[in-house]
Amino acid sequence: EAGVTQFPSHSVIEKGQTVTLRCDPISGHDNLYWYRRVMGKEIKFLLHFVKESKQDESGMPNNRFLAERTGGTYSTLKVQPAELEDSGVYFCASSPLQGGPYEQYFGPGTRLTVT
Amino acid sequence: GNSVTQMEGPVTLSEEAFLTINCTYTATGYPSLFWYVQYPGEGLQLLLKATKADDKGSNKGFEATYRKETTSFHLEKGSVQVSDSAVYFCALNVRSQGNLIFGKGTKLSVKP
What we know:
The complex is a heterodimer.
Chain A: E1 5-7, E2 10-13, E3 19-24, E4 31-37, E5 43-50, E6 53-56, E7 65-68, E8 75-79, E9 88-95, E10 105-106, E11 110-114
Parallel strand pairs in A: 2-11
Antiparallel strand pairs in A: 1-3, 3-8, 4-5, 4-9, 5-6, 7-8, 9-10, 9-11
Chain B: E1 3-6, E2 11-14, E3 19-21, E4 23-26, E5 32-38, E6 44-50, E7 56-59, E8 62-65, E9 75-77, E10 86-93, E11 101-102, E12 106-111
């Protein structure tokens, strides 16, 4: 069974540019989460999808961040325009919907560097 | 609010040494507790978990006991190996389908 995949693995962009990160969850997992780790700090929650609906987006830092999950499969996280403080590693995780607490399965992360 | 505090690293040990990584938490309600591990170049993997007070999670020789009275979930291993070198994250969630709240992570290096 394929795990959670993320693309790209690394992205280096200039301040003011736009970047789109993609996450493909484990097939059949209706829960999808985005997290971010800024250098040396804790991993912080950004938002949670249940299928295609945003269940909780309380962790989104500001309106420069837009997450979508059309069709309830893969998800994208767009940062527009990027700022220096957006640099960090962005993790995606997925889990089944029924029951719990289920393990959240994490992808390898996308390392974003804004220069 | 809900939070996790874990010991600062990095931690450097010799092979076969005893490992303890402290983790304490603050939470409303009855959280589930987790230890995740990130090996170099890989994503986070669940190492172990405990869902109620006095539960002991264990995996790959690692153990942690959910202590409600001290709000702690310390990670221990009796004899570490070089292959245990990684970053370890303590985490909690207060709703079974909810987001995880992480500590800052502790980097462990084990020398031969």
